[in-house]
Amino acid sequence: MPIGTPPTSVRPAAAGPAGETARAAAPRTVRGPRRGNLRFPRAERLAPYVLVAPAVLVIAGLRLYPLALGVNFSFTGDGDRNGQNVGWDNYRTLFGDPLFAEAMRNTGLLVLLLPVAVAIPGLLATFIYLRVPGHRLYRSVYFFPAVLSPVIIGAIFNLLLAYDGPANALLGAVGLGPVDWLGDPDVAIYAVVGVHVWATFGMALVVFLAGFATLDTSLIDAARVDGASLPLVIRHVIVPGLARTIQFVVVTTMIGMLTSMFGLLYVMTGGGPEGSTYLPEYYIWFQQGQMSRPALASAASTVLFVVMLAVGLAQLAILRRSGRED
């Protein structure tokens, strides 16, 4: 018997025709399992698609199809031209409307303020992760606003930021003049955005803490042993280690700022003063609910979707490039 032959292949020699039949049948017993094994990789390749198919069908039926209907509806008319194809007329009306122009300027302001909205929960999560005194209490306090309704939050801050409210009383106590937080066109949008950031950063804080759970603590310990200061540890260890988490928080925070501020705007300013706090979502509600112009509202929704898609892709590209450089 040749050296290295598997023991299972050793069979006693059989003489005569019966032995020849046994030897001829032996290869077929080996090839049988091989043919069967070839079926399993194909099934394994199809399994992910089968598992994902229900979710894809739900998204296509409840998201993509209504989105396509909305885009198509934006090319139809309102009022007397209801249902008629009007081409790009709604978009011409949209970009000629000063209120929509103000809403788009405020959208640009939100993009500029996005790093602040992401940095606040990121820094707070860092302090909690480093176990500053009272970190458990801080974690509960920081998350608490996320469970409140925007209507309740808006009503509370209407009282706090009133011209004769506690905020101005505190400023007067330190020798600063009162600020018309919600009545000054140059200040109102910052007040509303600040309240929104305060009310929503609790969710981003939880995401950051989940990201810290995957961070290699030995790198932080090594940086501390080498004498690195906290800013250097954050910049060279924590930020690169949380690159994926930061990408997720940036995109979700931007989407929230563009699509989840209606409640605060409605309660705190109602789009005023002088339309200075209009955002695209509030403009869409105004055209649909107050002016009965659903086709124009659909055009505004389409523009908002395109802006969100472009900003999100640009942010992801920038973050990925910075991650590769690090």
The fold-level CATH name of the domain at 98-325 is: MetI-like fold
Uncertain regions spanning at least 5 consecutive residues? 1-19, 32-38
Put simply, the count of helices is 13
Overall 3D geometry? Answer: flat
Strand coverage percent: under 5%
User: Architecture of the domain at 98-325, CATH level 2?
Assistant: Orthogonal Bundle
CATH classification, class level of the domain at 98-325:
Mainly Alpha
Task: Work out the radius of gyration.
Answer: 31 Å
Task: Count the beta strands.
Answer: 0
How does the major sheet shape up?
none
Q: What gap, in angstroms, lies between the N and C termini? A: 61 Å
Order of helices and strands: HHHHHHHHHHHHH
The portion of residues assigned to helices is over 70%
Helix and strand content put the structural class at mainly alpha
The CATH homologous superfamily of the domain at 98-325 is termed: MetI-like
Average residue-wise pLDDT: 84
Subcellular location: Cell membrane
Transmembrane segments: 46-65, 109-130, 142-163, 187-215, 248-268, 295-319
Biased composition (Low complexity): 11-29
GO cellular component, one term: plasma membrane
Topology:
Elements: H1 16-73, H2 89-95, H3 98-129, H4 135-143, H5 150-160, H6 166-173, H7 188-212, H8 217-225, H9 230-241, H10 243-259, H11 262-268, H12 280-290, H13 294-325
Helix pairs in contact: 1-13, 2-13, 3-4, 3-7, 3-10, 5-11, 7-10, 8-9, 10-13, 12-13
How would you briefly describe this protein structure?
This protein is an all-alpha fold.
Structural description of this entry:
It holds the Pfam family BPD_transp_1. Helices cover 73% and strands 0% of the residues. By secondary structure, the protein is mostly helical. The protein is flat and about 75 Å long. The N terminus is likely disordered.
